[in-house]
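assembly run, all chains below
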Amino acid sequence: MPKDASGILSEIKKGYIINQLKNGKRGDGRSPEEFRKITIIPDYVKRAQGSAYVMLGDTKIIAGIKIEQGEPFPDTPNQGVLTTNVEMLPMAFPTFEPGPPNEDTIEIARVVDRGIREAKTVDLKKLVIEPGKKVWIVFIDIDVIDFDGNLIDACTLGALTALKTAVVKAEGMDEFKLPVDNLPISVTMVKIGNTLLCDPSVEEEQMAEARITVSTTEDGHIRAMQKGKVGSLSIDEIKNAISISLKVGSALRETYIR
Amino acid sequence: MGTESNIKLLDENGLRLDGRNEMELRPIKIETNVLERADGSAFIEWGGNKIIVSVYGPREAYPKHTQDIDKAVIKARYNMAAFSVDERKRPGPDRRSVEISKVISEALSSAVMVEQFPRTQVDVFIEVIQADAGTRIAGLTAASVALAAAGIPMRDMVVGCTAGKVDGKIVLDLSKEEDNFGQADLPMAVLSRSGEVVLVQMDGDLSVEEFNHATDMILDATKRIAQIQRDALVARYSVETQGGE
Amino acid sequence: MANNDNKIVFPGEVLSSAEEYVPGVNTLESDGYVKSLAFGRVMKDDNRMIIYVKTDKVRLKPRIGDICYGQLIKVDQRQAIVKIGGFSDPKLGLVPYTAEGYIRFGQGDRGRSNDIPNIRTGDFIRGKVLRIGQNFELGIMGRNLGVVKARCSRCREFLVMKNGSLYCENCERTEQRKYTADYGDMINFGDDIENRQ
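ok done. output:
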């Protein structure tokens, strides 16, 4: 199959990059477990109930929270509703196209959602207005404005920061801070040659055989995982990925989400 | 225009809700090259508006049937983030954003030297991160800066401003409340040197005299805004040149 | 000599009268004046009396002689179609660029023995731009031009360089290609290629 422009380039560079990795060097000089520079600006969009602007290297995303009243799902009448939506805007990358979310976008949104949902980060039981009839619906919307790989981790950091700053308010009702606790940190790695690389750049993502994301909480438990791309991973590689995620993730939590 | 209401938009001294007089603009800040991937980009803060614009191209027009053998096609896409407005905006285009995209595309087409790049398209993506009245004009003003930053040949810069009528008085650069509860809204964009109009829309109720007064105010304001555009471009230019040499 | 007075100009700005200078790149003559069409710095070539505007953006179009990389998507008796992935820029390295190119087969471009083509569909190549039209005409003549990465035509494993020919470790057989001198060992993607010849 012919690839798109960046795919062709990454195929051509691949041999060179693998050789460099044998010497422990990544294209941008990072070590395998090192994240790029992270900058987070909380409360970036005043019109949203909570928000954050996240720069992960050259990847830039904006997460915003909207909280509205609506009906609960019939099977969970005593819980609020949480939805996560990611928009890979065409401004973010030359080959991104406008239109409804594609499978890549939906995968990212669902992996981010899963970590937050399974860690029970948002206490949905406290978001009931009238059981079975009226609950708070928390919309996490994330705009990707500049793409240089690792959207899952950038979006997770953005979603968490935005949730932490979110306030539930409506006319005639008491304001309260969105009940948020137990934050899951996701760490995404790709396998190139025999090395697992944290926080892959777009170039590394394109040439990788396999990708794995592990979301963990402070108690050291795994809350969500997702393996991606067509290549395979051994059980040992996955165990290794988990221990890297726990180690790197707790450092990220200390620095950025505290 | 919005519904009739009893909200007083001007106080006894003729000052507006945010303390501005009728000729005063909200604070405007423009930054260029804020994105890595785009060929050119700009970020504008205009009052409470926060808008990012990115430009790609000229690149091969796709799908092929949209190619024009004589010139480049400007494709602007105006989009609002879900969290940019008070009530969550469902993602994806609606009738309003499609119309705004069209008038912005047309306004930019009259400035860009489209005949120099046959069969190509220039994509202009306008993402409203936070909306606070006047987004189309703020987006278009930033788009012109992003095009210039991308090095795309243009005969002139495009710059715009709105005027409107609140409590019977013509004022410049409507705020959100004035937009919602005022009596007229007149967004206009011009080529900055010649003053030729490349975008005009209007809704509400204006007399001919009021319209003339409003356009005079807009033309005067665009001179000030054009200077902000130029300052933004130069600021980045000098930083980059110093870094590179 | 180009004389650079470093003045920054904007689209639509008057640069000189039409008598003083001839309009060059990014300028336009109108109403007796030369006006800028771009944001950039004014450059004056006083020997040729040309005034032009230099933007700080990299040029949008590749030029003849540039080195590009791509993948062969179709090879027939007369030509090969190349999906171009990018160009090599001396300063920026590999710059993505989507375009279509073709390699025309004349004398010498194709293997002689039994007319077996020595480039195949799917191969990644380094080419040189020979002509620019609707599509780019590319050349692969020269020690450093040709196939930089190829798959085995039987099992699709990547071929490796072994004793001066391309070898599939899986099928234990060799294949013929018009490969580059640095096949399998690319260190530099651009400006250094010429120096290595």
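The helical segments of chain A are 5-22, 103-118, 151-165, 202-207, 235-257.

The radius of gyration of chain A is 19 Å.

not gonna interpret more than that til we talk
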